[in-house]
Amino acid sequence: MATTRLARPPHHQHVIVMRHGHRLDSIDRSWPLTAPRPWDPPLAEAGWARALEVAEQLPTQLGFPIHRVVVSPFRRSVDTALGLIGGRPAPDKDPNAVTGTGGGIDPSKVKISIEYGLGELFNDKTFRHAPPSPENHGDWGFNIPEVEALVPLDTLDRAVKPVFNELPHWGETEAKARDRYLHTIRSLANSYPSENLLLVTHGEAVKVALLTHLEEAARFEIKVNYCGYIQLRRPVVQSSEALEAGEFELLTSHGQSGVNCLPRTDM
């Protein structure tokens, strides 16, 4: 008589895809003139305030815990992630000493890692400033250990295997970026099927994730505000032999999470 292998009851995995907060060069137009890396601005004060505000609202709005935060290597995204866990590095102090309201995502219950696949759309239409030789990845100055040093040690997860180990090729098209973002989101979700993920990235990635799962997507123009996000959910069934995951569905209500779907006027 054959033995029946019972699967565990299905559960839902949630993935939040969020844009970073207000970048400094959008507030202080003179900042790039003296910055050593003008293509990688940190958050402005308004960005920190917005990240902390969103963090206070998230637990109630979502109704489920966040287990893992995965972040684009750009400084504005890393800063946003720090704001979302309830604080920011104190000036000229150990990054593990954070200041804040104490609200937001509990840093003792999440892990943070850096992912190139969540980085900005990589072309001259996206970047206001770029290195003299942007096709040379070394010119961008990204050093993952240095980026990781901004993250409190008790939340940093260095053991994560990245989806992408380097920046995209310069001149990336929207189609290639779309494939990169979707592959990254799916790969991260598959790597941690029992966890709810918060992906802190850029506006284009949020648009891609939304339009991919939005019915009649061609009818809409998408506007993603700073710290705007969408919420995806899928059923996951874990048996003793395999993992079975369903397709993602879009749960975001238009406008309530800083993402607006506006009817196109050119149709």
Describe the structure.
The strands form three sheets. Strands 1, 2, 5, 6, 8, 9 and 10 form a seven-stranded mixed sheet that branches. The chain has a two-stranded antiparallel sheet with strand order 3-4. A two-stranded antiparallel sheet has the order 7-11. It has a single domain, classed as Rossmann fold, CATH 3.40.50. The chain has helices at 24-27, 31-34, 45-62, 75-84, 144-148, 174-191, 203-213, and strands at residues 11-19, 68-71, 88-89, 98-99, 111-114, 197-201, 220-224, 229-238, 243-245, 249-250, 259-263. The chain has seven helices and eleven strands. A hairpin with a 4-residue loop joins strand 8 and strand 9. The termini are far apart. Helix 3 (45-62) packs across helix 4 (75-84) and helix 6 (174-191) packs across helix 7. The longest helix has 18 residues, at 45-62. InterPro entries: His_Pase_superF_clade-1, His_PPase_superfam, Phosphatase_SH3-domain, PRIB5. It holds the Pfam family His_Phos_1.
Which percent band covers the strand fraction?
15-25%
- The CATH homologous superfamily is termed Phosphoglycerate mutase-like
The CATH C-level name is Alpha Beta
Give the CATH topology: Rossmann fold
CATH architecture: 3-Layer(aba) Sandwich
Poorly predicted regions: 1-6, 90-102
- Please tell me how large the radius of gyration is: 19 Å
Mean pLDDT equals 88
Region (Disordered): 85-104
InterPro entries: His_Pase_superF_clade-1, His_PPase_superfam, Phosphatase_SH3-domain, PRIB5
Pfam family, one: His_Phos_1
Summarize this structure briefly.
This protein has helices spanning 24-27, 31-34, 45-62, 75-84, 144-148, 174-191, 203-213; strands spanning 11-19, 68-71, 88-89, 98-99, 111-114, 197-201, 220-224, 229-238, 243-245, 249-250, 259-263. By secondary structure, the protein is of the alpha/beta class.
